[in-house]
Every structure is written in structure tokens, then in C-alpha cells.
Design a protein that fits this description.
The protein is mostly beta strands. It has 4 helices and 12 strands, in the order βββββαββββββαβαα. The strands form 2 sheets. The protein has a 6-stranded antiparallel β-barrel with strand order 1-2-5-4-3-6.
């Protein structure tokens, strides 16, 4: 589990087939093989480790559902280690499981601060609420408002200068993870949930039918 407090901006130094290698320093201090690292909000497992870099594999599912498939060498990414049991809960519950990809629609500068507007898939709009939490490329942020399928957040100078937001602009894509609490409530109450139909072949294959 993560909290959406970015620890470091890493640099992609190699993208090869299903493996990505990222240069970093701060998060390397206690990293071991098998560690969970959020890369732009996507939970990845460390498979290789060097003095100042680590590698992780990207599954076909992750490539399909996140922006990691579009990463290239020299690109900057947000990095966060999994939260230790005795750590501070600085942001909100972030699992590193991306719900959808958003697009930056508008950036309004307000002195040192800025308002950012994101266009999101309609299927995740129901989980986005004013004053609620959302993770954008792994950054824990607070929703100001949502109208139709566009929501806004306020970015303070510290967040912009210490995350990959400083390198993004209108039209760029970002990973979105909505608050897990809303999803649990929906499932427990049976809202909008339909039991998936299981084919006869599936039931036979798993021993439910003879």
C-alpha cells in the first residue's frame, strides 16, 4: 500500500520489451528484490537492482490499462516506496492499481498556484467526489469539483516542483486511481453490481460440472 506522497522523481534509462529500468537514489536505501515501488502510481515489483537503478517487469495488463506502455528513455516518473507499518499516513490509501487514464484538459495559472483540469473515463466518474481524494500519477490530491467527466484539482508549488507535473502539459495522459473506500461501499451495498455469467466450459474446466 502507498499513500500518494512522492519520494523522488526517477529517470527512465531503459525500456526493453516488458522490462523498464529507472535511475533513482532516495528510494534505493532499503530496496530489495521483490520490493513494491509505485511508478507513476502503478505498483511494480523490483526484479533487478543496481547501485543507482532498479528494474521491473510490466505485464500485458499493465501496458493496456496504464500509461507505462508509452514511457521512453529520459522520461521523468514519480516514485514511492510501499508504506512501512510504522510510517506516517501522509496522503490517502493508494493501492497502485490504476482505474483509468486521464487527459490534462486545462491548466490555469494563479500566481504560484495552479488549477488543473482532467478529462476522465465516464465509468470512473461515480467514484470522484468534491473534496475527495484521487491519485494522479501516484500523487495524492484533493478534488475541487467534477462536472460531467472533467474534474479539477489545485496544485501547490511544492507538489509541482517535486513531482512529474512540472514536465506535463495540456494533452498529456496520466494514471488515475480513485479512492478505494467508494468501491468497497458500492460492492457491499450491491450497487451497480452484476454477477458475471460463467460459461459451461469454464464451469467444467474448474470442476463445477461433470
Amino acid at each position: 500500500m502507498f499513500t500518494g506522497i512522492i519520494e523522488e522523481i526517477g529517470t527512465v534509462i531503459e525500456v526493453k520489451n516488458d522490462k523498464i529500468t529507472i535511475q533513482s537514489s532516495t528510494i534505493m536505501s532499503d530496496m530489495v528484490l521483490g520490493s513494491s515501488i509505485a511508478v507513476n502510481g502503478v505498483c511494480l515489483t523490483v526484479t533487478e537492482k543496481a547501485n543507482f537503478s532498479f528494474s521491473a517487469q510490466i505485464s500485458p495488463e499493465t501496458k493496456t490499462k496504464t500509461t507505462l506502455s508509452g514511457l521512453c528513455v529520459h522520461q521523468k516518473v514519480n516514485l514511492e516506496r510501499a508504506m512501512p507499518v510504522n510510517g506516517r499516513f501522509g496522503g490517502h490509501i493508494v493501492l497502485g492499481h490504476v482505474d483509468g487514464i486521464g487527459i490534462i484538459e486545462r491548466i490555469v495559472e494563479q500566481g504560484k498556484f495552479s488549477l488543473w483540469y482532467f478529462k476522465v473515463p465516464y465509468e470512473i466518474c461515480k467514484y470522484i467526489v468534491p473534496k475527495g481524494s484521487i491519485a494522479i500519477d501516484g500523487i495524492s490530491l484533493t478534488v475541487i469539483e467534477i462536472i460531467d467527466n472533467i474534474f479539477s484539482v489545485a496544485i501547490i508549488p511544492s507538489t509541482r516542483s517535486n513531482t512529474n507535473l512540472q514536465f506535463l502539459n495540456i494533452g498529456n495522459k496520466v494514471n488515475l486511481e480513485t479512492d478505494i473506500i467508494g468501491k468497497y461501499i458500492e460492492r457491499l451495498l450491491g450497487l451497480h453490481y452484476q454477477r458475471p455469467a460463467l460459461s459451461e466450459n469454464f464451469l467444467k474446466e474448474h470442476g463445477f460440472l461433470e
